[in-house]
Amino acid sequence: MTEIVFLIEDDPDGGYTAKALGESIFTQADDIETLREMVRDAVQCHFPDKQKYPKVVMLI
User: Fold this and answer.
1) Mapping DSSP to helix (H, G, I), strand (E, B) and coil, where does residue 3 land?
2) What is the block-wise mean pLDDT of the chain (60 residues), using blocks of 10 residues?
């Protein structure tokens, strides 16, 4: 895998959610900067093998 794309949406209860397109990865946070950190952490947990880790992580 060379890239993974996350769809960012406003959470109706406040904050933001991020859902990976094509992967079972989901996270949420109160603000965008924290959401970016949560996405990085979620991707690292989902791809523990560094050779399979995506080269690009996009937030849209």
Assistant:
1) strand
2) 93 97 96 97 92 92
22: left (phi over 0), alpha (psi -120 to 50) or beta: left
Q: How far is it, in rounded angstroms, from Cα 39 to Cα 45?
A: 10
For residues 30 and 53, give the distance between their C-alpha atoms in angstroms, rounded to a whole number.
Answer: 26
CA gap 23, 42 in Å, rounded: 11
Report which DSSP code applies to 30.
S
Q: Which of 21, 28, 7 is CA-nearest to residue 54?
A: 21
**pTM for this model (two decimals):** 0.89
Cα gap 4→34, rounded to integer Å:
19
Nearest to 22 by CA among 38, 45, 3, 42: 3
